[in-house]
Fold this sequence. Notes:
One of its GO terms (molecular function) is transferase activity. By secondary structure, the chain is α/β, with parallel strands linked by helices. The chain is built from 9 helices and 12 strands. The model has no long low-confidence stretch (mean pLDDT 92).
Amino acid sequence: MVKEKLQITVLVQTKNEEVGIGACLSQLTDFDEVIVVDSNSTDRTREIAVEHGAKVFLFTWNGAYPKKKQWQLENLATEHDWVLFMDADESPTPELISELRSAVHEMESGVVDGYDIPLDYVFAGRDLKYGHRVVKRALLNKRRAAFPTMNDLAAPGMGELEGHYQPVVTGETRRLKGAIRHDDKDPVRTWFTRHNGYSDWEAYLRTHASVRADVAVRRSRQGRLFDSVPFKPLVFFAYAFILRAGFRDGRAGLDYALALAFYYWQIELKVREATSQSDGGSQ
């Protein structure tokens, strides 16, 4: 029996994703519409997307707001008001698909305008069952949601994509149990490259109080908590590897907890450097 398509538009973010885009799109057959929004890839990303039956739109950032995701909410004529933001290294788990089918009537009722979805990570080739988990507001009613404009255009590290904060919805948000599986097919060095950029952005926030305060109110509760604790590298490692039982994932769990602790160490080191340079320049 062929199941009815989910009346949701999936918006897939790409830039030079030929390694993983095919695997991503092959997992989206339950959705009625799939759109790839490509940032001028120079590889075969767009060709592969077309081969998989996806619609393809180009996005060229002009250096201002709206950034990429908000631009899509404002400019793409999607078949459906409900949109699911996905990266090219992500795919919905069967549990999430089943849960979305059960949530259709709730979505149509207008009671809920957004859903928070947890991420399941694959790191160094292994599925992680424990440790730190990110939850992102990825499913939105586009007519009742928006990514806020932040005063962070001078900050390095993010570029065309919105930073680490949640979109704002008019009505209620709920959290789903089913997850999005995050499986980056690129070498692990690309993880460190991306997070080096992210740490630049985070360090900028910590040295610009008004921007940090503006972003803080848009973060998840978990994000606000981690933002406030001291000794982040050590605390985060203890949280991810011990409290959240990352050790049960073996070597991959250790690698992931260390990588994230290193990310927070980078932020603190860059903040100290920026503060020292500022103090030296003011003397």
